[in-house]
Each structure stands twice: as C-alpha cells, then as structure tokens.
Specification:
This protein is of the alpha/beta class. It has 15 helices and twelve strands. The strands form three sheets. Strands 2-4-1-5-6-7 form a six-stranded mixed β-sheet, with helices on both faces. A three-stranded mixed β-sheet has the order 3-9-8, with helices on both faces. A three-stranded antiparallel β-sheet has the order 11-10-12. Bound molecules: guanosine-5'-diphosphate and magnesium ion (MG).
C-alpha cells in the first residue's frame, strides 16, 4: 500500500517524507515504520531476537500549483496520484520569510481547498468520461446500470465540491467504482505544518478543521521544524522536550498511525522467541487471506487460527497463562481479523 504526499510546493512534503522514513535520503520514495506500542509489550513477554514493525510506502508527488497546470501536466500528475492508495495532504501553516510561499500570503484553508478542488475536478472529469462511455454502450448489463446510477450520484456530489468519500456510499457502491481510480473516494489525511509558536500555544484552525471534517478528512497538526529537532535529540531527552509543547509523543508517530488508518490498514501481530511482528492487512480481511501475508504455504494449508486479543495477553502475562484461562480462541478461515489480534496459524504443508 502506497501513501501519496500531495500539497503546494514548499509546504513541507519532502521534509515530512524524510521524518516519517527516519532518513535523509532525499528521494521521492521511502518506507515508513508504523509505531506500535503493543510491540514493546510483546517484547517484554517473549524476549524475541527481533522486533519488526509494520511499514508502508510513501511517494512524494510533484508540488501542485492549483489552476496553473497545462493539460498534459495535469494528466501526468493525476496518473501519478492514481497509483497511490491514499493521500497525505500537507498544508503549510508556518510563516518563514526565508521560504517563499508560492501564493505569497499564508492561508492554509485557501491552499487546502485549492488542492482539493483540483482533485474534485479530476474526479468530475473522470466520472463524466466513464459515464458517457457506459451510457453509449449497447451491451449494458445490470452491473453497468448500477455503475451508472452511482456515477450519477458522484457527479452530483462532486459538482457541489463534495469528495466521493463523504457521500455516504455503501461498501458495495464504492466497490462498483473500484476500477475508475477516483481520487476523492480514497482515504485522505491532512497534515497541517504549523509554526513552532502555534504548536506551543495549541492554536486552533477552526475554519480548516470544519472544512476537513465536512470532507471526511482527518486533520493532524505537527511542526516539521520541531519534529526535526526531536529526531535529533538523544532518546532520554525527548520526553522533556515534547512536554514543552504539551505533547506525549512525536507528531510523526501520530501522523504515521493516522496515515496507516487512511490507507484502510490494520495490524495483526505474531509473537514468539524468534520474532515479534506487526503485519499490515486491509480492515475486513479473513483469517486465511491474512495468513498469506506471512507465507502462501500457510494460506494454502490453512487449518485454523489461534487468536488472542492483545489486551488479554497483556493481562495474562504469558501465552501459557492465556491458554490456561481459556482466552485463546480457535477461529476458522472466514474469521475477520481485528486490529491487535495475536495469531498463531495452524497449517499443514
Ligand atoms: N520554518 C519552517 N520551515 C520549514 C518547515 N517545514 C519545511 N520547511 C522549509 O520549507 C522548505 C520547503 O520544504 P520541503 O519539505 O522541501 O517542501 P516541499 O516542496 O513541499 O517538498 C525547506 O527549506 C524546509 O526547510 C517548518 O515547519 N518550518
Ligand atoms: Mg519536495
């Protein structure tokens, strides 16, 4: 699963990419770990040789200047966006005379809306093209009729500047749109890059917050500048520094988890002496398909899953105590895996 970073030039996309990836590689592609406090708890119980967090891929898309792209540039840009699975939209709220703002003045709500409008417009164009093609085809079946109906609702919503994700479509209806690559149907997260003083004072951005909520876009406030300072501190000094800003954890941790959720991903966990590990799967994945994450042999030879809830294992203190208390469940191939399930798969080869 691939998270695409979008936003105006000079909003902090590259900086955030490096922060999330924990490197300074300077490329447009990176891999970010998803911090998961449950892994530390499992490590204390199992003392594994290694601990492996879940990861997700990041792609920085070229800076977008709304309203100023040639048609060819626009198409190339949106084709690149379509290759990603969810969007991390970086919005600039920091003032810095040394870093010119492409729109000259600072106005996060204006910038966020302008970028979003480009996405809405790209979707509207796509919806109209696809609907016209379907309407003309003579061999239309029931599926195509249903698609046309949903596309009609999308066109109406998009025309009112409402992203497809906020139209209240059912999973089935969204499934009908699956192949069309609509950008505002996928998860999106707004990362508001605020100045150090605004972070310290906990300044609210009410207009932006209301606008984001209306579009079903979660908003996370952070400061790339402050995050870079945190990353440069020795671990034992971080807590105190975070406190100065009224934070309990780095903003990049919150962002990584929110981005993971925007991708529609959850984690199941495996734990043993060799490795404690978090495995990313789409929410709603059945047990047998989840097993394929680990190895296709386990999927093929799937017998059952032995499943414990994280909180139960934490309270029991060991796998044996958990089993003795009768808290280990046996689940079949169709069991829908939940976030934080600790699973041991039984399979034959
Ligand atoms: N003052 C300040 N400068 C920042 C912040 N985040 C990024 N910058 C600077 O803004 C410039 C553009 O950042 P960059 O991450 O390259 O933006 P991009 O064009 O969106 O990829 C760089 O010079 C950064 O150092 C911030 O939070 N505060
Ligand atoms: Mg950049």
């Amino acid at each position: 699963m691939d998270l695409g970073l979008v936003g105006l030039p000079q909003s902090g996309k590259s900086t955030l990419l490096s922060l999330l990836a924990g490197t300074n590689a300077g490329g447009r592609l990176a891999v970010a770990r998803v911090p998961d406090p449950r892994l530390a708890v499992l490590s204390d119980i199992f003392h594994p040789r290694r601990v492996t967090p879940a990861t997700m891929r990041l792609t920085e898309l070229p800076g977008l200047l709304p309203g100023r792209l040639e048609k060819g540039e626009r198409n190339a840009f949106f084709e690149a966006v379509r290759k990603t699975d969810a969007l991390l939209h970086v919005v600039r709220a920091f003032d810095d005379p040394g870093t010119p703002h492409p729109e000259v003045t600072l106005d996060p709500l204006r910038d966020a809306r302008n970028i979003e409008e480009e996405l809405l417009l790209a979707d509207l164009e796509r919806v109209e093209t696809v609907a016209a093609r379907l309407a003309k085809s003579h061999g239309r079946g029931r599926e195509e009729e249903l698609q046309l109906a949903v596309l009609g609702r999308c066109a109406e919503g998009l025309g009112e500047a409402r992203p497809v994700r906020s139209l209240g479509l059912t999973a089935e209806e969204l499934g009908l749109l699956g192949g069309f690559g609509l950008l505002t149907a996928r998860g999106e997260l707004l990362a508001l890059n605020v100045g150090e003083d605004d972070l310290r004072s906990g300044r609210r951005f009410e207009g932006l917050e209301a606008w984001a909520a209306a579009g079903d876009i979660p908003l996370v406030t952070f400061s790339a500048r402050v995050e870079a300072e945190i990353a440069g501190l020795p671990a034992e000094e971080r807590g105190e520094f975070l406190q100065e800003f009224g934070l309990t954890e780095p903003g990049t941790d919150r962002l990584a988890r929110a981005a993971y959720a925007a991708l529609g991903l959850i984690s199941f966990l495996t734990a043993g002496e060799d490795e404690v590990r978090a495995w990313p799967i789409p929410a709603g994945t059945p047990a047998r398909r989840a097993a394929a994450k680990i190895h296709s042999d386990i999927e093929r030879g799937f017998i059952r899953a032995e499943v414990a809830a994280f909180a139960d294992l934490q309270a029991a203190g060991s796998w044996k105590a958990l089993r003795d208390k009768g808290l280990l469940r046996l689940e079949g191939r169709d069991y829908l895996v939940r976030d934080g399930d600790i699973i041991e798969f039984r399979f034959h080869v």
